[in-house]
Amino acid sequence: MTAAGSARTAEAAAGSARPGAAAGGSARTGGTAAKSARPGADVRTSLVVAADFADVIGRGGDLPWHLPGDLRRFKALTAGGVVVAGRRTHESIVARLGRPLPGRLTVVVSRRADLPRQDGMLVQPDVPAALHAARAVAAFAGRDELFVIGGAEIYAQALPEVTRIHLTRVHARVGGDTALPAGWLAGFTRVAAERVDGDALPFTVETYERA
Ligand SMILES: NC(=O)c1ccc[n+]([C@@H]2O[C@H](COP(=O)([O-])OP(=O)(O)OC[C@H]3O[C@@H](n4cnc5c(N)ncnc54)[C@H](OP(=O)(O)O)[C@@H]3O)[C@@H](O)[C@H]2O)c1
What is the dihedral sign for C-alpha 15, 20, 24, 26? Predict the structure, then answer.
């Protein structure tokens, strides 16, 4: 069962639905994880981000670079799973693709009750509620990891819950208007790194885990 397909049932099972929250995707039934007292307790919370040497991640509401190799890596990492995104990041994805990320459930964090709904998304009114719902859906879909995909406001608030970071370190100082918070990697240890060449900018794919 995919995360996107199990969203509606799992949202109800999580007990996280609030007035104004809405689910996209088709309804399914079944599964055992959602029946546990703490749905999603075993689901790891990971952060996925691409940042330059100055920890810049965005410019003008979009990514400051176009790196197809990193986009492929992001797709492979998150395929079939649950991602948590701030409203601005969600809107930048919809502007690019015309819809939320295909093949994944996006839990969007927004205070806006009137945010347009599409299949493949839930809306939650704050970060704890979004993580709670994402964990429940991920567990229901049999996933052991969920992905916080930005932007900067959501990264900063979710960081205390994060135990793994998938970082694409872009080898440049591109300049921008959105950056990760100072000291964001404190408490994490790098456990893997692989340099990738061939895109417009070289980058290193790094994995960090909470020490
Ligand atoms: N390089 C990367 O890996 C990467 C990844 C993701 C994004 N980005 C970039 O980052 C930029 C966007 O980041 P951002 O920090 O400006 O925006 P964001 O984190 O994507 O979204 C901010 C929005 O999230 C909602 N929000 C935040 N905290 C909330 C809370 N406590 N309760 C309820 N809602 C809350 C609010 O939505 P409402 O206003 O609707 O209430 C807020 O306006 C873009 O340039 C994007 O391209 C880069």
Answer: positive
CATH of residue 97: 3.40.430.10
Q: What six digits make up the tokens of 161? A: 């819950």
Q: Is the CB of 176 under 6 A from ligand 1?
A: no
Nearest CA to ligand 1 atom 30: 126
Return the ligand 1 atom nearest residue 58 CA.
45
Residue 131 pLDDT exceeds 80:
yes
| Inside any domain, residue 82 | yes
Q: How far is the CA of 31 from the centre of ligand 1 (A)?
A: 32
pLDDT digits (tens, 9 = 90+) for 8-37: 545 554 444 343 333 443 333 333 344 455
28 Cα–ligand 1 center, Å: 30
Within 13 Å, how many C-alpha atoms sit on residue 191's CB side? 11
Residue 181 has pLDDT above 90, yes or no: yes
Count CB atoms within 10 A of the CB of residue 4. 24
Q: How far is the CA of 11 from the centre of ligand 1 (A)?
A: 22
Query: pLDDT tens for residues 150-178?
Result: 999 999 999 999 999 999 999 999 999 99
Classify residue 33: in a domain, yes or no.
no
